[in-house]
Amino acid sequence: MTTPLIERPPEATAGAAASPAPASVAASARVIAGRPALLEDKSTHYCPGCGHGVIHRLLAELLADLGVAERTIAVAPVGCSVFAYDYIDVDWVEAPHGRAPAVATGIRRVRPEAFVLMYQGDGDLAAIGTGEIVHAAARGERITAVFVNNGIYGMTGGQMAPTTLLGQKTTSSPTGRDERLMGGPIPITEMLAILPGVAYAARGTLADAASIGKLKAMLRRAMEVQVHDAGFAIVEVLSNCPVGWGMTAQQSIDHLQTVAQTYPTGVLVDRLKAAAAPPAPAAAVSAPTTAAAPAPSSLTLEPATAAEA
Amino acid sequence: MASAVPPRPAPERVLMKGNEAIAEAAIQAGCDAYFGYPITPQAEILEWMARRMPELGRVFVQAESELGAINMGLGAASTGARVLVSSSSPGTSLMAEGMSYMAGSEVPLVFVDVMRGGPGLGSIGPSQGDYFQMVKGHGHGDYRTPVLAPSSIAEAIALVADAFEIAERFRTPVVILADGTLGQAMEPVVPAYRNPARQVFDWAATGATGRRPRVVRSLHLKPEDLEAHNEHLQAKYRAIEAAETRWTGELLDDAELVIVAYGTAARVARTAIRRAREGGLRAGLLRPISLWPFPSAPIAELASRARGILVVELSAGQMVEDVRLAVEGRAPVAFHGRTGGMVPTPDEVLVSLRHLWAITAPRPPEAGRDERPPRRTARSVPIEPSMRRPASTPEGVDEPAFQEVWR
Amino acid sequence: MERSTIFAGFGGQGILFAGNILARAAMAEGLEVFWIPSYGPEMRGGTASCTVIVAEEPIGSPVIDRADAVVALNPPSMARFEASVGPRGLLVLNTSLIEAQPSRTDIEVVAVPCTALARTAGDDKLVSVVALGALIARRPLVPLAAVRRALEVVLLAKRPEILAADLAALEAGYAAALEGALTPV
């Protein structure tokens, strides 16, 4: 671990995540946001400015909103977010590095009633775990995958990831990522989106408050896909790593605009919409199964810049 | 015999292939889910499960790789499901990671390795070359997994149910270690299956409905925490050693030469000791059934009165190291093994027995009967010269020959 | 007492099936039996073999030093397994395909044109069943009736239409071996 532990969590990096209302607030004041019930009241081990905290909060809100928290079995990856189980109050199983999609598959198959949430970083999902993620997606496992792309191996000290931008300097690409020697960034969500088993694939970003709002809608949709038993759903989140990138928190947030030039945000595929499923009720435990995955002929990716619903 | 009751009809025997018997025994033991990947010589387990599990409404997944299969097993077993995963040597190497995580997370699962020749891609012939891999832990870190080695198809059926029981009682992966011969052969068996009683798990991730959330994990980042976890695991392993050490013996009472062998090698040895006795050589067989925990105590006891010990394996010599540790110099230990898919024949083993007879001295009468050498454990052993060989060595025998691998 | 038989021939000659039928017959007779094939890629189109050990007592070694009987259905099988026959053991030769003379003089040889008899019974593929009949005629490991019943049990469940031809092939092999010379013809 190269990241220092901090005493207090930083203020949320964007407006969407409000801190809990202090006790001193006058009784007449209206509380517009608080700590989600599922989010543990403790300091995280994440570095100041890290995006994981925002994503954790969104998930804690949505699991409660959709009424699935009590039947959620989440799968933790290896990477900075390995400790997600310390922060989000649901059952967790810790997977070996990259194997979260296989672990989630095993859970999914023996627990049809469970809501299976998977959280992976880019080294975990797009490097060591490519075999597992491709085949879980191809099988159309009813899993909601949250893929946090910060372009770096944060936990081990900021080495080059499969998603690292061309020219980006890391501790294992000290002169910058050279495409000739190290290959180019992998657009793995686009790759997964063409598989018939994938019912929903989208990419959002933590770049600003409006984007975080759109990201939350994507995550909600990806969870509804599972509630409707429609197939595999993945949301890639462009996140920041101020320490690994050698930037201040604000610089790293601003840099996400640059990252989005390589990884355009938007909905890549939404077959739940194609199958004309009804809007997901909050606790649709036994929602009717939607039609089988559409034929490849209908597999037209929406423009990457499409406005999010 | 006026009150003779009508004879009960003997239970119907059926001819079963080893791989299929292992698979069906798991099904009858209440296996909820199977995950696998095709590899010879265990593909029949996968095929049997592919047909049977869906028709029973249970889970079968052919994974994308052995990595996928073992981790699907980890996930399913983390929810408390009864899970079987099987593979053969090259595949088991890929599964080592998952086994270590399950040992660390204390997830029960039954793992079948139908061994084939190695290293590398090796051959598809029978082998016992994975002894080190399976018995010494399989994956990284300080852990053990119980390893059960059937010697017949009927025994394989019984051990599969036992394996699920041990796995769940002690929260640990358990290995069934077979080889290509047992997997591919057919024998008549009485289909006497057993479905161990289900336990209530207070650790499984099932969804936190009306209780505090649970986490199934192996990560303990603070050294103090991980050491405490390791001490807990080690205490568990001592309990397994006390409860689950299994072995059987044949013709040992008056045996001057003792063969130690497991699985297929033990069957070859069984024929060899009978031929040896036909020739006047008093030989016996000790067959470990649990390879970990290893039956060190009975081997030590035999070594204190035997003229010599012969270890027979389908390997270049792996279990022989554990036998030597158990014997602790009380008797000479010789080895006969074949590799690469070759199986020693009874006559080969007989030659080795005669050789061992020729180069060992008889035990003095009565010696060792009443006054055995003190049983020494690794913890209590005093530091002393390693030259602790039998006092009398036959003339003209090169002592290091004891340590040679005989072929 | 353990008695071992090696069945060997081309893949497709029904080698494993014949061994399987012998094993089932022995099981039905209350005997112990062990059946082990040569397995893997060599089964796909090359030579195939299986070993069947029959005994009154639980069977020890799955590998044998010498076979009590070898059934060789093609020339490569004879070349490979002739030396495996134990002294005073039996070698069943398919003379429809094997022209070479066995070199061993210390064994019993029964020469049967198995493929020709199989064709007469209805199908070349019955060659192994013919050979099984010949084996049982010379080495009554199990009664002929037990083999007949094993064929009935297996084939009535899977392919009842070929049962009659299989039974005819079995009888033909049995009769031929009873009549056959003790040395190759």
Instruction: Give the end-to-end Cα distance of chain C, rounded to a whole number of Å.
Output: 32 Å
Query: How many H/I helical runs of chain C?
Result: 6
The appropriate CATH architecture of chain C is 3-Layer(aba) Sandwich
Computed over alpha carbons, the radius of gyration of chain A is: 19 Å
CATH class of chain C: Alpha Beta
- Global structural class of chain C: alpha/beta
How do the strands of the widest beta sheet of chain C line up side by side?
A: 2-3-1-4-5-6
The total domain count of chain A is: 1
What is the CATH first-level class name of chain A?
Alpha Beta
**The CATH superfamily title of chain C:** Pyruvate-ferredoxin oxidoreductase, PFOR, domain III
Low-confidence parts of chain C, pLDDT < 50 over ≥5 residues? 181-185
Q: Would you report the number of β strands of chain C?
A: 6
The computed structural class of chain A is alpha/beta
* Helix coverage percent of chain C: 25-40%
- The oligomeric state of the chains shown is heterotrimer
Largest interface: A-B, 37 and 41 residues
Number of strands of chain A: 9
What percentage of residues of chain A falls in helices of 4 or more residues?
Answer: 25-40%
Structural write-up:
Chain A has helices at 52-65, 100-110, 122-128, 130-138, 179-182, 188-193, 209-227, 242-245, 249-262, 271-274; strands at residues 72-76, 91-94, 115-121, 144-149, 152-153, 159-160, 198-205, 232-238, 266-270. Chain A is of the alpha/beta class. Residues 1-19 and 279-309 of chain A have low confidence and may be disordered. Chain B is 37% helix and 17% strand. Chain B folds into 2 domains: 14-197 and 217-244, 3-Layer(aba) Sandwich (Rossmann fold); 248-373 and 389-406, Rossmann fold (3-Layer(aba) Sandwich). In chain B, the strands form 3 sheets. In chain B, strands 3-2-4-5-7-6-13 form a 7-stranded mixed sheet, with helices on both faces. In chain B, strands 10-12-11-14-15-16 form a 6-stranded mixed sheet, sandwiched between helices. In chain C, helix 3 (114-121) runs antiparallel to helix 6. Chain C is globular and about 40 Å long. Chains in contact: A-B, B-C. Strand 2 (91-94) of chain A pairs parallel with strand 9 of chain B, so a sheet runs across the interface.
Essential attributes:
heterotrimer, B: alpha/beta, Rossmann fold, 2 domains, six-stranded mixed beta sheet, 12 helices, globular, disordered C terminus, C: alpha/beta, Pyruvate-ferredoxin Oxidoreductase, domain 3
